[in-house]
Specification:
Layout (H helix, E strand, L loop, with lengths): L2 E3 L6 E3 L1 E4 L19 H13 L4 E3 L7 H10 L9 E6 L1 E4 L3 E4 L3 H15 L4 E6 L4 H6 L1 H11 L3 E7 L3 H10 L4 E5 L8 H10 L3 E5 L16 H7 L12 H10 L6 E5 L6 H6 L8 H9 L8
Parallel strand pairs: 3-4, 3-12, 4-5, 5-8, 8-9, 9-10, 10-11, 11-12
Antiparallel strand pairs: 1-2, 6-7
Length: 303
């Protein structure tokens, strides 16, 4: 699989990364496939991802069992720490009874990082991110100061954040403190994301993409979606052709943007990884396909 330099970091990341939400937390949007896999199946997903050439694994404290299962895979020797770039996030915890709990205080960020390191069974992570950093957290700078302290102590190599608010993302880039950003970008969410990717490129900030398949809408699962959502997907069905599924076309669209460094894809099943990885073969969309995508009026959406 092709690799790209993650902004100004020295990390060479696989074009397709593994988003580790689904291996640790019940999750499913379009077809109601909510249940997380059991531990053995989750570890098989991790093994298969590495075998296919994925070297970036992105987790979070809010992904419930995800970090623990990655740590177990490492401790059992099922995956090799030297072969992976390990990223996680702090600032959000998830209680399956109460939902998300947010705490971006200095102390909470440092405590969350230490908990992550214990669960992941590693002394340092390659990338530590503020989870869904809102604008007030970026402006306050407290969470980033905590990450910088952890970085100086060797507990993380690089620091960044994931974002749902475009203004927060732009201001984070402008501070010069963030090595990476993580944002949503897909065929259905182009208008908001592309200026952020361009701003990151100018600052040599690494760009990780979440939700490249619009939470399953840009896959065969769109058939189970509401009439409204099926209508949103319909203009892009031309990407489904011989040798390319709709999902692969959607991933190749994202990778056609040179400012993107890795696209995070989640999976609950090892057999589903191969199709995603095949999209990171450097082939990209054809010029004609890109022109047809550009001709579709984008829907401004949340990150």
């Amino acid at each position: 699989m092709n690799r790209r330099r993650l902004g100004r970091t020295d990390l060479m990341v696989s074009e397709i990364g593994l988003g580790a939400l689904e291996i640790g937390r019940d999750w499913g949007i379009v077809d109601g496939d909510l249940d997380k896999p059991d531990e053995e199946q989750a570890i098989r997903v991790l093994e298969h991802a590495v075998r296919l050439g994925i070297n970036l694994i992105d987790s979070a404290r809010a992904y419930v069992l995800s970090e623990e299962r990655i740590g177990n895979a490492l401790s059992l020797g099922r995956i090799d720490r030297d072969q992976i770039i390990l990223a996680t996030k702090a600032g959000e915890h998830f209680d399956e009874g109460a939902g998300s709990i947010y705490d971006y205080s200095y102390e909470a960020i440092l405590l969350s990082l230490e908990e992550s390191l214990d669960l992941l069974r590693t002394r340092t992570v390659d990338l530590m991110q503020i989870h869904s950093a809102p604008l007030d957290v970026v402006r306050a700078g407290e969470a980033m100061r905590a990450l910088k302290k952890a970085q100086r102590a060797g507990r993380c190599r690089f620091v960044g954040a994931s974002f749902d608010d475009p203004q927060a993302c732009l201001e984070a880039i402008s501070t010069g403190d963030y090595d990476t950003i993580q944002i949503s970008y897909n065929l259905l969410e182009r208008e908001t994301a592309e200026p952020l990717i361009a701003a990151a490129a100018r600052a040599d900030v690494g760009v990780l993409i979440k939700q490249p398949l619009a939470q399953g809408l840009l896959t065969s699962k769109h058939a189970h979606a509401s009439p409204h959502d099926r209508g949103r997907v319909a203009p892009y069905l031309f990407l489904e052709r011989e040798g390319q599924t709709l999902a692969q076309g959607a991933l190749r669209f994202v990778l056609s943007n040179p400012g993107v460094h890795s696209v995070l894809c989640g999976s609950k099943r090892p057999e589903h990884l191969r199709a995603n990885v095949d999209a990171g073969d450097g082939q990209g969309l054809s010029a004609a396909e890109l022109e047809r995508v550009a001709a579709v009026a984008p829907e401004a959406g949340s990150l």
